[in-house]
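User: Could you check the structure of this?
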Amino acid sequence: MANADISPALRKEIAAARKRAARSLRTKPHAKTARYSSTTRALTVTLTNGATFSVPVAMVPALAGAHDAALRDVTVGPAGVGLCWERLDVDVSVVALARLALGPHILMRAAGAAGGTVRSRAKTIASRENGKKGGRPPKPV
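Assistant: Sure, the predicted structure tokens are below.
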């Protein structure tokens, strides 16, 4: 599709999406580097915030049977949200690797805790309305 075929509205949406992506890259952790160690048969991911985690390739079904030479050719995707092995035709998201490394329960607990601390106008209004009704109902014993 030639650029002349793009509507002004779509151009505006694309520009806004690029701004959101740039902001996300600046403010949220993304994969910076990834490397495979044949000694430990583990994949180590370093994030943009300096944190690092490792995952044994045996835990990643798509990589479990791959040879060391193919596993060494890992690249970080342009947005930093995924890793790619061209020779294996495999892409894995960083979030999926973190879930494997930490376990789904820890990630869900952390996500819930983070969501609970978010302040918005809608939450403030809902809290005030709930307070008018007597507040949060007691937990069953």
